[in-house]
């Protein structure tokens, strides 16, 4: 496979059309790392809000390492996929450990290979940070780039290896950071899943799938697993709920919320209703009962997931 994408045309388009995103105004690897981790599973518009919140509180990796996991989770509240926040905190701790103990003396590694040894950093994030912040000639592959590749080569179902090979061969090594961002920007703004704007595309001359772009890549069938849970929302005389910290594993690990489980004793409690919450791989149905507790917790004092906020609202707790 020989990619024939017009590199100069794509780079010129990116220079003139890229979105004004706050992390693009800096080469600070920590700022770029924060943005890449946030954007993994958060839309750009919301990602900007959370990036500003995190970067102003933690302008350096050391600032985060000297914070607490609970405070990081609190700032992450509403961004979802909280394991990212926990791993980011672990990463900050690891980076700030002494090199004698396997750390990096407070300095983020600069190359993609070493970045991948840190908690929560996979090949994509490592390549993005190393290329954008340090100019390493390494190609990123994300969902946007896979879609551009599938259309450019008219391949309905390209394998991960084939997409990586195309990205590696297409890479503009002289400016890998901007090249990676340009390809991702193309996928995010012009070569979109449902309405690609081929008429203004800077790389239409090499696009084999342009006549029928939405055919590529074929939609991936994702089945969501249904999860049924029970929850008891106990409230004190002042309207404050009982909140417990979740365990160290699972999608809500480290967050706080009302007692929840597969089976709970709800005899003599009042049934409130069901909360429905959809995640990328899970379809959650939570049946909620209301009870009483001696002393509750101020919900604003602890990190709560969006699911728990919904449960509290069902019980009239804000
Ligand atoms: S011509 Fe259309 S389908 Fe091809 S890369 Fe450009 S926007 Fe995507």
Describe the fold and architecture.
By secondary structure, the chain is α+β, with helices and mostly antiparallel strands. The chain folds into 2 domains: 7-215, Hypothetical protein, domain 2 (Endonuclease III, domain 1), CATH 1.10.340.30; 225-314, Nucleoside Triphosphate Pyrophosphohydrolase (Alpha-Beta Complex). The protein has helices at 7-17, 29-39, 44-57, 61-65, 69-76, 83-96, 112-115, 123-134, 143-152, 160-170, 176-189, 306-314; strands at residues 225-235, 244-245, 256-257, 259-261, 270-278, 282-292. The strands form 2 sheets. Strands 4-1-6-5 form a 4-stranded mixed beta sheet, with helices on one face. α1 (7-17) packs across α11 (176-189) and α9 packs across α11. The termini are far apart. The model has no long low-confidence stretch (mean pLDDT 94). The chain binds iron/sulfur cluster (SF4). Iron/sulfur cluster binds at residues 148, 151-152, 190-191, 196, 198, 201, 203-204, 207, 209-210, 213.
Contiguous uncertain segments of 5+ residues: none
Give the name of the CATH architecture of the largest domain.
Orthogonal Bundle
What would CATH call the class of the largest domain? Mainly Alpha
Tell me about the biggest sheet? 4 strands, mixed
Radius of gyration: 23 Å
**Whole-number tally of structural domains:** 2
Strand neighbour order, sheet with most strands: 4-1-6-5
Q: Write the CATH homologous superfamily of the largest domain.
A: Hypothetical protein, domain 2
The 3D shape can be described as globular
Give helix % range.
25-40%
Summing up helix and strand content along with how strands pair, one would put the structural category as: alpha+beta
Bound heterogens, unique? iron/sulfur cluster
